[in-house]
Amino acid sequence: MHLCGFLIAGPVVHSHAIWRNPAHETPFLSLAHYARIAQLLEQGCFDFLFFADRLAIADRYADSHVAGIRHGDQDSTRMDPLPILGAMAAVTRHIGLGGTRSTTYDAPYNIAREFATLDHISGGRAAWNVVTSMNDGEALNYGSVPHLGHDERYDRADEFMELAFKLWDSWDEDALILDRAAGLYADPDKVHYVKHEGRWFQSRGPLNIPRSPQGRPVIVQAGSSGRGKRFAARWSDIIFALQPNIERMKVFKTDVDAALVDAGRPGGSKVLMAVMPFIGTTRAEANELLALHDSLADPVAGLSTLAAHANMDFSGLPMDATVNEIAASGSQGNIAALRSITPDGSMTIAEAGGVYARGVMCPRLVGTAEDVADELIAIIDSGAADGFVVSPAFLPDTFESFVGAVVPILQARGYLRSNYAGGMLRDMVKGGAQ
Ligand SMILES: Cc1cc2nc3c(=O)[nH]c(=O)nc-3n(C[C@H](O)[C@H](O)[C@H](O)COP(=O)(O)O)c2cc1C
């Protein structure tokens, strides 16, 4: 079973209650907070952790930033993940380190440098969550209005990846010589111009960084529309998904497997499903934790995040209108998943605000550590996933109880490594090194 810890460098993750933890403050602007989480997840033998990211505060809801900023929604604060990952590399040795960057608002040369650098300084532990970005706020921040259309963003992303891969390949593996006596730094014949001239990008190259331990970062992707799945099937090592229940997980996994076959890469990518555990020493305690959590998740913050995901201001609709009235130009996959929760289309916008605030549709696994381990194992055994993106309800509390109580059960039952074998992240996610 592959495990990834889900993070955002801000007050909120999928759960919009995180920063309101009544037990203690959540110091989400401090490095110590992230260093502690990285070490904890490494203690739990997670494959990797990753920071989701977006490039704008949310202001689609009521065409204003007020709801999101007042209540602390998913986009109210997001620090840049890459510097934090660099610091995490210094305090860990094995766990993979993933960051999100956008193919719509960044340049291939920048991205190639950032992840080559992270891969070098972490000894082959870098991963890039490739996103195409979702909403007009992001376009406005980068002076690129209007936001490119949904499928066009993926077209641009295809060329972005082609160029990034060329840049990572521009240094041969044995180009760096470092013959100190002869004064030979590197072999110029093994460092290549890329001379890329495309529809979206021009870049001469080569990269100004020698080939990194993994050659390129592990590529993660989470598009869930048809076009998104085709993109992921072509490029990714890992696919993240968020599906509300095991039936939808199975449908998603079947679709992805077919897309991988179409892309000529059968079995070429692992599917990790997002889940949000609530772990108690008894079931009653887990249910109390869930109730406490949900009482702190403000539906207005959920509506603000939902509007940002849909890239639509639906505040003019009545609260009892159904979610079928929401037409997404942002994340098509997320809105389709929201509709699928009530197949008769009866979920109202008010209810969707609650669902989003409590965990953006992440299925919640509630019970003792045994119960949670049983559910994870059942999903793996059913073939609906290769692993999980563990999304916390409180930080670092959820990861503490998961690592302290669920991980030992998964290890004892042979579903999770008990220590790291010392390979690189790509070896780990391919199932090679355990
Ligand atoms: C676990 C997970 C993590 C994601 N992380 C991000 C993220 O960091 N930034 C982002 O803009 N979208 C993120 N997404 C959303 C997808 O990357 C994708 O942008 C979105 O679903 C739109 O693509 P689609 O229309 O193909 O579904 C994430 C989705 C999942 C399931």
UniProtKB/TrEMBL annotation:
**Which terms are listed as keywords in the entry?**
Flavoprotein, FMN, Monooxygenase, Oxidoreductase
Gene Ontology MF terms: monooxygenase activity; oxidoreductase activity, acting on paired donors, with incorporation or reduction of molecular oxygen
**Keyword Flavoprotein: yes or no?**
yes
Q: Which InterPro entries match?
A: Diverse_substr_monoxygenases, Luciferase-like_dom, Luciferase-like_sf, NTA_MOA
Record-linked PANTHER family: ALKANESULFONATE MONOOXYGENASE-RELATED, C2H2 FINGER DOMAIN TRANSCRIPTION FACTOR (EUROFUNG)-RELATED
Stated family: Belongs to the NtaA/SnaA/DszA monooxygenase family.
The name on file for this protein is LLM class flavin-dependent oxidoreductase
Q: Native species of this protein?
A: Xanthobacter tagetidis
Q: What is the lineage of its organism?
A: Bacteria, Pseudomonadati, Pseudomonadota, Alphaproteobacteria, Hyphomicrobiales
